[in-house]
Design a protein that fits this description.
Blueprint: E1 9-11, H1 19-25, H2 37-50, H3 52-63, H4 74-82, H5 86-104, E2 111-116, E3 119-127, E4 130-134, H6 143-156, E5 160-165, H7 177-185, E6 191-193, H8 196-205, E7 207-208, E8 224-225, E9 230-232, H9 237-246, E10 251-252, E11 260-265, H10 271-282, E12 289-294, H11 297-313, H12 317-325, E13 330-333, H13 337-347, E14 351-355, H14 359-364, E15 371-374, H15 380-385, E16 411-419, H16 421-437, H17 441-448, H18 456-462
Parallel strand pairs: 1-13, 4-5, 4-9, 5-6, 9-10, 11-12, 11-14, 12-13, 14-15
Antiparallel strand pairs: 2-3, 3-16, 7-8
Bound molecules: nicotinamide-adenine-dinucleotide, L-histidinol and zinc ion.
């Protein structure tokens, strides 16, 4: 590992690349979910075929522990909350309160549109029945992701929620106690000790829990792990690949894989802030991406220096350095903020910070990002925990077409069509004409027959 971390440069000055050229020129190489699909497919298939037993075996292989049961006993949740550090509890409560405030405003009301007199279409918003919420637990512990998953699901009115998180060897095969405590704080009582691709597969296919003794030694019977309808939540490349494989059988939120931060900055940005924010997201994963897009070569050089100074002190230095020196991280030099906006819009980062003059105006011109953080006092870390915004956000360019987790993720809009006889009669000829134009005359007949019975001749023509 080189002592000095000099971020790779992509120099776009004097050029106006097309969007396609930008996408291939920008640093994002390291995170290709396709490259691990062949590793993840056998895991998903084994869990499909052998259920919880296979999931437990993979837990043993990848997490170094085989829990006695997949489902965490109820009393472990209560105990975890009782033992939770008071400052962490207070912080979680603030996070929950603010996140609830924002997500309460996302609730949708049904709309009734009177299309014509006697003809209405109602859009009814119905929560998904049972959801699986993935909470990562490999490199770090993510009670904040319990909050970010559970709060919108509850605000949407989902009735059945299960949280899945990897078993931890240090805690006898239970997920980390702060995860259990956060679940208890939020009123979620179904938590499974399963992580990675095997968790996504078990949520998809369900299974029967083992008959073994519970974690505290009390004998318990096997119980049904009912499959879910939708899986949400962030995770590493294996979790993301499993979600890609299971999509369709279950609903899946946007791919929220290894973390990314892009920062659009000019000469007014503070290099110490920029470097700190880049490190903060790089500490998630060796595959995390930190990208600075700037008009200022002076800032770029100062950020390299600030990174060096801060890396000396950062706890997960090796992970951060690997992420910063990977092909997914770097500094992109541009001629103007206008060009910078073209770059960040093409990149569609999970998190985008705007550290420029008139940051709000610049932010208003961003078209693609998971979440935007405006000016010097809104670092990504604030959004990770306590802004009220959601931190489960699309990565790898998915922000071009998808949004972060929200109440909407957990709702289905159902159109309820209600027409009177005369309203149908009024439009009947148009339905029949369109049906004939599509060579689907039985569609037209389904309308015509309501007003005219088949004559023998017409029946003959139909045949
Ligand atoms: N985009 C977002 O919204 C968002 C939010 C929070 C975290 N994240 C990301 O979530 C990820 C969390 O990753 P993590 O690793 O800490 O926890 P994780 O829970 O996602 O992954 C840990 C699991 O990965 C599996 N695993 C590990 N090595 C494997 C291998 N070689 N083959 C198959 N499976 C394997 C194990 O089963 C383990 O349980 C990070 O990449 C972080 O950046 C993203
Ligand atoms: N930055 C992550 C989203 O990519 C969320 C997170 C949780 N804890 C810390 N950070
Ligand atoms: Zn983070």
């Amino acid at each position: 590992m080189p002592a000095r971390t000099e971020l790779a440069r992509v120099d776009l000055r004097g050029r106006t690349p097309s969007v396609a050229e930008l996408r291939s020129a920008l640093p994002r190489g390291g995170v290709d979910v396709d490259t691990v699909l062949h590793q993840v497919r056998p895991v998903v298939e084994a869990v499909r075929d052998r259920g919880a037993d296979a999931a437990l075996e993979y837990g043993e292989k990848f997490d170094g522990i085989r829990p006695a049961r997949v489902r965490v006993p109820r009393e472990e949740l209560t105990r975890a909350l009782a033992d939770l550090d008071a400052d962490v509890r207070a912080a979680l409560e603030v996070a929950i309160e603010r996140t609830r405030k924002v997500h309460a405003d996302q609730r949708r009301t049904d709309t009734v549109t009177e299309v014509v007199p006697g003809g209405t279409v109602t859009e009814r918003w119905v929560p998904v029945e049972r959801v699986g919420l993935y909470v990562p637990g490999g490199n770090a512990v993510y009670p904040s992701s319990v909050v970010m998953n559970v709060v919108p699901a509850q605000a949407a009115g989902v009735e059945s929620l299960v949280v899945a998180s990897p078993p931890q060897a240090a805690f006898g095969g239970l997920p980390h106690p702060t995860i259990l405590a956060a679940a208890e704080l939020l009123g979620v009582d179904e938590v499974w000790a399963v992580g990675g691709a095997q968790a996504v597969a078990l949520l998809t296919y369900g299974g029967t829990d083992t008959d073994a003794a519970s974690i505290d030694g009390t004998a318990v019977g096997g119980s049904e792990l009912a499959p879910v309808d939708l899986i949400t939540g962030p995770g590493n490349i294996y979790v993301t690949a499993a979600k890609r494989l299971c999509r369709g059988l279950v609903g899946i939120d946007a791919e929220a894989g290894p973390t990314e931060i892009a920062i659009l900055a000019d000469h007014t940005a503070d290099p110490v802030h920029v470097a700190a924010d880049m490190i903060s997201q790089a500490e998630h994963d060796v595959l995390a991406a930190s990208v600075l897009v700037t008009t200022s070569t002076e800032l770029a050089a100062a950020v390299d220096d600030a990174l060096d100074a801060q890396l000396e002190l950062t706890k997960h230095r090796e992970r951060v350095q690997t992420a910063l020196s990977g092909s997914q991280s770097g500094i992109v030099l541009v001629d103007s903020i206008e060009d910078g906006l073209r770059v960040v819009n093409a990149y569609a980062a999970e998190h985008l910070e705007i550290q420029t003059e008139n940051a709000s105006d610049v932010a208003a011109r961003v078209r693609s990002a998971g979440a935007i953080f405006v000016g010097p006092w809104a670092p990504v870390s604030l959004g990770d925990y306590c802004a009220g915004s959601n931190h489960v956000l699309p990565t790898a360019g998915c922000a071009r077409h998808s949004s972060g987790l929200s109440v909407q993720t957990f709702l289905r809009g159902i159109h309820v069509v209600d027409y009177s006889e005369s309203a149908l009669k009024d439009v009947a000829r148009h339905v029949i004409n369109l049906a004939n134009a599509e060579d689907l005359p039985a569609h037209g007949e389904a309308v015509r027959l309501r007003f005219e019975r088949l004559t023998d001749g017409a029946a003959e023509a139909q045949r």
